[in-house]
Specification:
The protein has 161 residues and is an alpha/beta fold. Helices cover 29% and strands 23% of the residues. Helix 1 (18-27) packs across helix 2 (45-52). Its EC number is 2.1.1.-.
Length: 161
């Protein structure tokens, strides 16, 4: 886990409920060929679920304590060889190698992040957002989970050429 001098976090950690984690991994259609980036990864639960599908993963967060939890959980689950965690502002994170990007950010943060994603991501990369969309960018798929802990909605986009 890399450390850096970082600004204050943009938002506090709100964990994705466990039932939504599994639905999100299914919705993202994660396979062993994927490299999953979780921007604002918190305790790493989404990346651990992706690693259970044999995907590799990279998590970025500004919260050192969350990253320590994520690293410990990754090691405990036996995925420390598949998952990497970085303490870095997600708006400057290098995401060029991603085949899947996961975010659970407020709408104004998604909008702030979108130009960065569009600049770095390759065509075909899947972006999955829990709960919030990217404004006027129409998602390719939407999944409503009315029976989940917080009646979640998942959005998916595929980056075009």
């Amino acid at each position: 886990m890399a450390e850096a001098s970082l600004p204050n976090p943009h938002i506090g950690f709100i964990p994705t409920p466990e039932d939504v984690v599994m639905a999100l991994v299914d919705f993202a259609q994660i396979t062993p060929a994927d490299v999953v980036y979780d921007l604002g990864c918190g305790d790493g639960r989404l990346l651990i679920a992706a690693a259970q599908r044999k995907a590799k993963g990279v998590g970025y967060d500004v919260n050192k304590e969350c990253l320590q939890q994520a690293q410990a959980a990754s090691e405990k689950a036996g995925f420390s060889d598949r998952l990497t965690f970085w303490q870095q502002d997600l708006f400057t994170a290098n995401v060029q190698e991603a085949t899947v990007v996961i975010v659970y950010l407020l709408p104004h943060l998604n909008l702030k992040l979108l130009p960065h994603l569009r600049k770095q991501l390759q065509p075909g990369t899947r972006i999955i957002s829990h709960q919030f969309d990217f404004g006027a960018w129409v998602p390719d798929r939407v999944l409503h989970l009315p029976d989940s802990v917080e009646a979640s909605t998942l959005y998916a986009w595929v980056v075009s050429a």
